[in-house]
Amino acid sequence: MRNGRYKLAVLATIPLLAAACSNGGGDNGDSADGGGGDLSASLTGAGASFPDPLFQDWIYTYNSDVQPGVDINYQSVGSGAGVEQFLEETVDFGSSEAYLTEEDLAVAAENRGCEAVQFPVVFGSVVIAFSNPDLDGLVLDAQTIADIYSTEITTFDDPAIADLNPDMDLPSDEIVPVHRSDSSGTTAVFSHYLSTEVESWADEYGEGKELDWASGLVGGQQNDGVAQGISQNPGGIGYINQSFAQEADLAVASVVNADGTPIEPTLESTIAASDEAEVPENFQFSIDNIGGEGYPIAGTNWIFTYTCGYEQASADAIIDFWTWALTDEGAQDLAGELGYAPLGPNLTDRVIAELEKTNSENGSDEGAADGDTDQE
User: Fold this and answer.
1) Phi/psi zone of residue 125: left (φ > 0), alpha (ψ -120 to 50 degrees), beta?
2) How far lies 357's CA from each of 2, 87, 305, 342, in Å?
3) How far apart (Å, rounded) are the C-alpha atoms in residues 176 and 125?
């Protein structure tokens, strides 16, 4: 059934610095404490809109209650732009629902002169949302979703949908599929799911942050743009992060998982999906073939930093903020309220060990002479 609306804390707007993204200074403090109140830095990050509601709440709470001297400006520009800005070194950290590939990592090392660091911070579901509230709980499977987005299914009372929903009075309304028009990690998660489950989709459309969509579909910028496109079009249907569906009060589908069970997208079913993920040492993974009580279209958000090139105050603030976000009980409660699944304890320990590699290759007398984002 429909989820409640989330409460998003108001965050003062801070202009994004295009070329000089952090100029932290002052006392370094102890980054392991996650809340000593003695750090001073200004950080910028950019990337996925998928976790933006949670990131803005985290940033607001951290700045208000934990480290008032640390200003963090996160720009929700989409995963593709987030990776691009990270590789161009115009931000202190990047964010994406698609991990950095070996090619990306090679570019990062060449540009920066040291290795990049990437680690997951949260899991979330990509839901299929509708403008029509009467469709809340509509059951879909991978094939019907693929056929809707390839325009082979054009009305809600199509026999393939009716077979999955024998007890629902389906409208004959024309379906208006809405997709991301920007380079998107949400699209990467959505298209990976369809490519894994539907051979014809894999052959014709494939997977990635950007696709060559069928003609006649509606495009929207970022998750909120897709949510708006769904709401504004009678018959609108689209794929968005669960939090955006909650905020827009949209009806959502139950999706049939690998065990043949229709699963509603909830925090519990997202956690169940994330529990099935096999996470390798390099943190490059997808969440596939989800059964049991797990919701089948689940994704991961990664954060990217570098092992060199930061002023130490900035590096301390990066490590402190993400350590706090991953370990503080209140921060994890915020994630759950918005429908995001936190990492498990063992994975959290692994992630923090990886996070602490940030700036680890800087020598005691080396600043950021070679590619520091803190300098012009």
Assistant:
1) beta
2) 41, 18, 9, 21
3) 22
Whole-number Å distance between alpha carbons of 277 and 261: 19
Which residue type is seen at 248? A
Q: Please report where in the chains the tokens 């809707």 appear, as a residue.
A: 148
Backbone torsions φ then ψ of 298, nearest 5 degrees: -120, 145
pTM score: 0.85
What residue has token string 């249907």?
Answer: 237
Q: Are 263 and 297 in contact (CB under 8 A)?
A: no
The tally of CA atoms less than 13 A away on the side-chain side of residue 372 is: 20
β-pairing, 251-252 vs 41-47, is unpaired
Phi/psi of residue 372, nearest 5 degrees: -70, 125
159: left (phi over 0), alpha (psi -120 to 50) or beta: alpha
Beta bridge partners of 358: none
Strand 176-180 and strand 251-252: the pairing is unpaired
- What tens digit of pLDDT does each residue of 24-49 get? 333 333 434 444 579 999 999 999 99
What number of other Cβ atoms are within 10 A of residue 227's Cβ? 25
- Write the pLDDT tens digit of every residue in 195-246: 999 999 999 999 999 999 999 999 999 999 999 999 999 999 999 999 999 9
| DSSP assigned state of 61 | H
For residue 154, the one-letter residue type is T
Task: List the domains of the chain with CATH numbers.
Answer: 41-123+299-355 (3.40.190.10), 125-294 (3.40.190.10)
| CA atoms within a 13 Å half-sphere pointing along the CA-CB vector of 293 | 8
- Rounded Cα–Cα distance for residues 329 and 77 (Å): 28
Q: Which amino acid is at 300?
A: T
Q: Which residues pair with 176 in a beta bridge?
A: 236
CA 71 to chain centre: 21
C-alpha separations of 37 from 33, 70, 310, 321 in Å: 10, 9, 20, 11
Cβ–Cβ under 8 Å, residues 219 and 178: yes
Of the candidates 20, 62, 23, which has an alpha carbon nearest to the alpha carbon of residue 42?
Answer: 23
Q: Which of 372, 356, 310, 370 is nearest to 113 (CA)?
A: 370
